[in-house]
Amino acid sequence: MKAGALVESTAGRDRGRLYLVIGVEAPFALVADGKSRTLASPKKKRLKHIAPLGAETELSALECDAHIRKAIKRLSAEGGCHHG
Predict the structure, then answer these.
(1) φ and ψ at 68, to 5 degrees?
(2) pLDDT digit string (tens) for 72-84?
(3) β-bridge mates for residue 57, sequence order
(4) Does residue 67 have a pLDDT over 90?
(5) What is the H or E stretch that residue 4 is in?
(6) Which residues contact 3 (CB under 8 A, 6 or more apart)?
(7) What are φ and ψ of residue 19, in 5° steps?
(8) CATH 1.25.40 fits 5-78, yes or no
(9) pTM for this structure?
(10) Rounded to an integer, what distance in angstroms lies between the CA atom of residue 65 and that of residue 47?
(11) Quick one: pLDDT at residue 47?
């Protein structure tokens, strides 16, 4: 798992939600979606509780929460993901 990866939560109240990995501190990943979990307060998820979806973006291009939301939308559309 590396920063910039699009992942899906597989466990917890946020199961099924899409996030971008902001950082990795094994055994955790810091993830953000630009809405409820922002760059300022990313969610700490165990690596075993997220599934990579095979899409990535350049993390340096994500300067604000709006960029994260747009990247998630673009990556999920490119990958044929059926999430909102």
Answers:
(1) -65, -45
(2) 999 988 765 655 5
(3) none
(4) yes
(5) none
(6) 21, 22, 23, 24, 59
(7) -140, 165
(8) no
(9) 0.88
(10) 22
(11) 96
* 18 CA to centre of own chain: 6
**pLDDT band at 62, cuts 50/70/90?**
confident
Structure tokens at 54: 């095979």
DSSP code of residue 42: -
| Longest pairwise C-alpha distance within the chain | 29
How many residues are present in the chain?
A: 84
Q: Which two tokens stand for residue 20?
A: 């971008």
Residue with tokens 């094994």: 26
| Dist CA 14 CA 8 (whole Å) | 9
pLDDT confidence of residue 22:
95
| Domain regions of the chain by residue span | 5-78
